[in-house]
Amino acid sequence: MVDLDLSPPEGLTVSLWRSLLLNFIDRVVPERLPPLELTSKPVDVGLLAGDLLELPWYRTIFSNLADVITPETLPPLQLESRPVNVGELLGDDLAHGWWYSLLGSIRDRLAPEKLPPLELTSRPVAAFGADASLQILDWSTLITTPKVFLPDAPKASAQPTSFEQTAPQAPVAVPFHPELLATRLRLTRDLGRTCFRRRIWIGLAAAEAVFLLVALFKFQ
Length: 220
Fold this sequence. Notes:
0% strand
């Protein structure tokens, strides 16, 4: 494997004036490099895709007929690498019947495959409530300060009440605001319209579902 260098190029750290000067020098006095020497043998790839698209239609017809009548005989494929057993492919697994999946699930439930113990090379991260359905952050694992327990608020002691204290008091008049009343009326009206529109949409969806079921069973 080749080590990838994802660091920014050195040209980003060059100042503007130095970059202009280097570009001017390369333009006026370019560097003379030795001729390129190819150490590999070129491979004949045949006709390129761009050239093939530019051919007229009659040439492609004759070439297709020639490929059908006398196809090119290729040498047998020689595998130089050792094949790896990847198990059953996903497409073959999906092609099985439902009973095959049911039997496999029962087999895995009764006699599960024994796997070797997992070797962790990194420090495990606290699973924030992963054992429950509700994912809540466990703040006790995030905060490293010591826990401080505050005392409970003192409860008011029960004192004997007299007749004057237990007597009902006159209700206090709530100030009337016309703006609040108008806002409440508008909110009530909008909620009523929303419920009405929801009932209409639900009715239309139910009618469409019934129509599709009737058409399915009638024209089948």
